[in-house]
Structure formats: C-alpha cells, structure tokens
Design goal:
The chain is mainly alpha-helical. It folds into 2 domains: about 70 residues; about 40 residues. It contains 4 helices and no strands. Helix 3 packs antiparallel against helix 4.
C-alpha cells in the first residue's frame, strides 16, 4: 500500500500547487475550491494508505519476493465473449441523452437498460454457455 499512498501523495502536491496557480491567474473561487478539495481528498487517501501500510502485513503485491500463487485467487469472473456490457453501455448513453433532450428517450433507455442487465445476469443460464 506504500505505492498507492505515494501516488496519492504526489496527487495531493500536484492538485494543491495547481489550485494556487489557477487562483493566481484566474481569481476564480469555484475552480480553485474544486482543485483544493481534490487535493484534500488525495491527501486523505494518501494518509490512510500510508498509515495502514505500517500496521498491516504486506500484501503479495508489495513484496519483491512474493510468488504468483500467494495472490488472491478470486478476482471475479469476466466473460470474454459477452456482448451484454456493450448493450448496457449503449442503454446508459440513451438514458443520459434522454436527460438532455426528451423524457421519452429516458423511458426507452431505461427499458433497454433493464433488458441489457437481465441479459447480462442470465447469460450463463441459457444457450451455448449454460451451466
């Protein structure tokens, strides 16, 4: 977790300096506040990761002498042949466009989203890849 903490620490320094430079050149309070809060969030995550890394046993990802089989065996299952995530993404785009243009588009997008999620959920219950 030291690497993650260090990366977020670099983010804290970057966003804090960027907020100062942005404020100096623009005198804009809203953008400066957003950048300062982004730096503050990066600091919180960095502090937590570095604080936790001192108190927990090092993960296999953090040790140079770790073996592959020491890692967590279950990262999840992701279907390599599925088209359903694409359907869910397109339906989500339709819903978002419906928020911009028309309410009927939201209804169409939600219906397509429900269909896509049901297809994604039950993909391995029927057809060629059924268990």
């Amino acid at each position: 977790m030291r690497i993650e903490g260090g990366l977020f620490g670099i983010g804290f320094v970057f966003y804090t300096l960027l907020a100062g430079v942005y404020w100096y050149f623009s005198r804009d309070e809203i953008g400066t506040t957003a950048l300062a809060l982004t730096g503050g969030m990066a600091f919180l995550i960095s502090f937590y990761a570095l604080y936790t890394s001192k108190r927990v046993y090092p993960r296999p990802e953090d040790r140079l002498d770790a073996e592959i089989d020491e890692a967590d065996p279950e990262y999840g299952f992701y279907s390599p042949h599925s088209w359903w995530p694409l359907a869910v993404a397109v339906a989500t785009v339709i819903v978002v466009l419906g928020l911009i243009f028309a309410v009927w588009l939201i209804v169409l997008g939600v219906a397509a989203l429900v269909l896509g999620m049901v297809g994604l959920l039950f993909e391995y219950y029927r057809g060629e890849f059924a268990h």
